[in-house]
Amino acid sequence: QVQLVESGGGLVQAGGSLRLSCAASGRTFSRYGMAWFRQAPGKEREFVAGIGWSGTYYGDSVKGRFSISRDSTKNMVYLQMNSLKPEDTAVYYCAACQNCATNTIAIERFYDYWGQGTQVTVSS
Fold it and tell me: Which of 13, 24, 103, 107 has the maximum number of C-beta atoms within 10 A of its C-beta?
């Protein structure tokens, strides 16, 4: 069992930065693929970034602006968000995947555990 708790969301002006954190419980945390998804009002949840054994992956809309990292010694995953835009406004979710592969890390249904989400609002 893995429990995920996100933090770091808030209100920021366009062009600014935020760093989201995800604290994970569980002794086998390092075995999981981890990702950030987001959901804006009236829209489906979308893949933002993922990190697994084979590297890091990003959604097209955030490439070059966002960076995902993990610290397995602290059971933490981070999402550094730079050059934020109003369209980045959403609830951001941390997720853990037991059996993610390169071709599934961006697919929501492969994730086993989810956090409660943290709100990010970018003003124009």
Answer: 24
In contact, 66 and 81? CB cutoff 8 Å? yes
DSSP β-ladder status, 46-52 and 33-39: antiparallel
Do 91 and 107 meet the contact criterion of CB atoms below 8 Å apart?
Answer: no
Nearest-angstrom CA–CA distance, 79 and 50: 10
Residue 113, C-beta contacts closer than 8 angstroms, at least 6 positions apart: 1, 2, 3, 4, 32, 95, 96
Sign of CA pseudo-dihedral 98, 102, 106, 107 = negative
For residue range 42-85, list pLDDT tens digits in order: 999 999 999 988 899 999 999 999 999 999 899 999 999 999 99
pLDDT tens digits, one per residue of 96-121: 999 888 889 999 999 999 999 999 99
Alpha helices in 6-121 (DSSP H): none
